[in-house]
Every structure is written in C-alpha cells, then in structure tokens.
Specification:
With about 210 residues, the protein is mainly β. It has helices at about 1-10, 70-75, 205; strands at about 15, 35, 40, 50-55, 60-70, 85-90, 100-105, 110-115, 120-125, 130-135, 140-150, 165-170, 180, 200.
Length: about 210
C-alpha cells in the first residue's frame, strides 16, 4: 500500500504545443519551442543519459522531436526494433485505446492501433505508418515524426478535445541498458498504465474559429 501511494505521488508530466503556424506535415518547417522534462527510468530514477522530447502542433498534425546525448543508439543500431527504439503512446478520449508508434535508430517505423473491446486488447498494424527522420551520430540520436490527428483512436481532437494522455518510452534492451520513460510507470510492461499518462495540450485546437 505504501509503495502504491508513493508511486501515485509522483507528478504526471505535461507539455503544450503553442499555435505557431501550419506546417502541413513538413518536418523541415517545424519550430519546436517546448521541451519536455528529462526522461527517467521506469522506476523514476535519474537516467544515465540526457533524453528529452520536443513537441509542436498545427490543426492537422502533431510533431515530435526526440533527442538523446549518448553513443549507445549507434553502438546497438543492429538490434531489432523492439530492443532499441523510441515508442510513442498517444491515447484517445477512451484512455485505454492508443496509437503505438515505435521508431528505431535505423529509421524503421511501425505503428499500431491498440484498443480494448469487451475486456480484450486488440492490436492492428498500419500498412503505411508515418515516416520518421532519424539521425544517429557519435554524439547521440535524434528522430522527428509528423503524426496526423486522423490516426489517433477515438477521432480527431477538436476544440472540445484539445488534450490527450500520452507517454514516451526509450527501449534499451542491451546488457546494462535500462528502459526510460517520460512518465515513470513503475512496471516493466508499457501497456495498461493509464494512471501514469502525461498530458499533451494542443493550443492550435483550442483556438476559436
């Protein structure tokens, strides 16, 4: 009981994307003016790498730029997607339903719709996942992605649905590597942790027409 209450006391993170223009899905035009707090381990311990997420949005897309200052992404670039990747979990109005996107340093991207129906989780893959721009150097790894709101479960956000629950995970499945999260979840599995979702706010969608 004490451990559960201690976990619940850890603040949930949030980040807002200001209304700064329409980028039309073009990553080369995006201006990121909001940066998340540093990622931490799944158990809320300080990470051994500086890892952060940046966010921007317009009326049709949400944009993310992940940056980490560490050489391990390059050192393990040959590992499979589920052992060396960034995962984005974007939830709809029904918090148990989510869009799950995994991006490897190699640029490989997989996207899934994960929904719960009659108490059973169903996961369906997207034949055409969003394209990501991945850059790996000796200094670290950065990746950008533009995600259309139409991919989110439960419909497109609007003036009355201008924020969603989300979490981001950095899987580091090599010996000695520890998984990281934007919002620590205090368990190993990334799914069914709706009580630990952070908040993404879309200022462009809050604007009155």
């Amino acid at each position: 009981y004490e451990e559960r209450e201690r976990n619940r006391s850890v603040p949930l993170p949030w980040i807002a994307a200001p209304d700064e223009g329409d980028y039309g899905g073009d990553l080369s035009k995006v201006r990121y003016s909001r940066t998340s707090a540093p990622f931490r381990t799944l158990d809320n311990e300080p990470a051994d790498v500086d890892a952060r997420m940046k966010m921007a949005a317009d009326r049709k897309y949400v944009y993310f730029r992940y940056e980490e200052k560490d050489m391990t992404a390059r050192a393990h670039v040959g590992m499979d997607l589920w052992s060396n990747s960034l995962e984005l979990h974007l939830h709809g109005a029904k918090r148990s339903d989510l869009l799950q996107i995994a991006i490897a340093p190699s640029g490989e991207v997989k996207a899934f719709s994960s929904v719960v129906e009659a108490g059973v989780r169903r996961r369906d893959g997207f034949a055409n996942p969003p394209k990501a721009r991945s850059v790996v150097t000796d200094e670290g790894w950065s990746v950008e992605i533009a995600i259309p709101y139409s991919m989110l479960p439960g419909g497109i956000p609007g003036p009355h649905f201008d924020r969603i629950g989300a979490n981001f995970f950095r899987t580091r499945g090599w010996p000695g590597g520890r998984a990281l999260a934007w919002s620590p979840i205090f368990k190993k599995a990334y799914l069914d942790v709706e009580d630990r979702l952070g908040c993404l706010a879309f200022c462009a969608l809050s604007r009155k027409k």
